[in-house]
Amino acid sequence: MSINLNHYFTEKCYDGNFLNFLSIHDNGRSYYLTMPNDGKLDELYNVTMELKSRQLTGTKQQVFEVSEQQLKLLNRIAEQETNWIVYPLFIVAEQFYQISKTINSISELERCGRTIHRSFNLCLNDRNPTLPKNRRIGCYMFANLEFQLYHKLKNRDMMKNLVKVLQSRRQEIPTLRQSLARYHKSHMVKYNYYMGEYYGCYEGDFSRGHEYLSDALMDCSRDPRLTKKRQRIVILLVPMAVLMKKRPVKVPEIYHNMLKALKTGNLSQYDAQVHKNEIFYLENGLYVAMSLIRELVLLRLIKQCYRYYGSRNILPLSIIAIGYTKSTQRGKQRAKKLTPQAERELLDSLECQLANLIAKDHIKGYLSHSNRCIVLSKKNPFP
Amino acid sequence: MNGGANAAMEIKKESLASVPGVEQSQKTLEEDDEFEDFPLDTWPSEETLRETAGAQTNLWEEDWDDVEVDDGFTKELRAELEKSRTQQ
């Protein structure tokens, strides 16, 4: 079967055959291009044909070089085209990324990143006033490729630059839901996941992290093939949600004790699970979130003290100290009798932690240092 | 100095690996570390969790402040605090 490539460039559309033509895998078809052009299309044709034959005979490095040339050429061609070219360009860019991954060298991955960034830019900077033909619909999908690359490179600065560009241009570009990604839901999920991870795990912006990650989850389907992806999202989402005062009903096993401790105000149980999962939390950028959740466990403990002490609005620090000592001691261990000095220090430390909770609006009330008590709002002590 | 820190890290990893459950969750996450390869490219909007009734409410509950969790810890805490209340 022989396929005429001319009409794609005259009709400004693509189909499966055109994508097959661009693919490195030779599918036994022959392609021909006869239309007169300024040479770029001929070059693309030759490079693509070379790529297909290199796949069979060349080294990984040779395949990489030709694949890079192919993307560079298509980038130059795409600059003159309307947005029909965006998806074929994405396929070529993704193919180049997959090839770069097999080489697994930093410098090659960086080269790949630079060329894909050009594809991203030629989408982002399209000034075509006819919006239905504007290439800006493609920027999220190329951004996803860049996110993947920067993950591989463990380069957070490049991620930061990318997010900054996307944020500063968000008035001009279509929303994710209006973009090409809407026909490829996996890309909507990916984009929201990477943004959520960026804000929640690296920038300490848990509110945005939570927003992006719950969007990522909501756009997944229930298909069992996506189970792993959903689980991965939930792993990052749960700590952010807890910090947003959402209460998860069901959590992955790793969070079982965290959740239990949060429901009872058990600080030693909380600390034990942080200790046990420390490396996991560090590797996944969740350690900061976990440190902040400890404050909510303490808050819960204070609520328990308040309730068990008869819900009076004046709560002596000595009562909180009893609860705190109970909560921080492990197992059946008996609380030791404190020296007056140690007792003073404990109350000072509690005052300090309570002041933080008041400042963060978790508690409504004020501290009386001279009376060593906290005076709680009668109406709404725990907003 | 560096060697010492690394050694400490190694021990930590080993002790983690010996805890059942932890090792498992770590392994699956390492595999999944790359969020990139999706087994499906797309799916119909009607099939997303967003469009599935009750997905949101199945995930989160409003608050559990009024929910009493009766475990060993809360029982002891309650007993101790109620004791000090009656003593005063």
From TrEMBL, chain A:
Q: What InterPro entries does the record tag this protein with?
A: Csn12-like (IPR045114), WH-like_DNA-bd_sf (IPR036388)
- Gene3D superfamilies recorded: Winged helix-like DNA-binding domain superfamily/Winged helix DNA-binding domain (1.10.10.10)
Q: Which domain of life is it from?
A: Eukaryota
A molecular function (GO) held by this record is: double-stranded DNA binding
The name this protein carries in UniProt is Uncharacterized protein
Species assigned in the record: Zygotorulaspora mrakii
TrEMBL record, chain B:
Primary localisation category: nucleus
Q: Which InterPro entries match?
A: DSS1_SEM1
Q: Which GO terms describe its cellular component?
A: nucleus; proteasome regulatory particle, lid subcomplex
Q: Indicate whether Chaperone appears among the record's keywords.
A: no
Provide the protein's localization. Answer: Nucleus
Location of region: Disordered: 1-46
Alphabetically sorted, this entry's keywords are: Nucleus, Proteasome
The signal peptide stretch is none
Cross-referenced Pfam families:
DSS1_SEM1
Q: Name one GO biological process term.
A: double-strand break repair via homologous recombination
Work out whether the entry's keyword set contains Signal: no
The record, for SMART domains, names: DSS1_SEM1
Enumerate composition-biased segments (Acidic residues): 30-39
Q: What does this protein do?
A: Component of the 26S proteasome, a multiprotein complex involved in the ATP-dependent degradation of ubiquitinated proteins.
Q: Family, per the entry?
A: Belongs to the DSS1/SEM1 family.
State the name under which the record lists this protein.
26S proteasome complex subunit SEM1
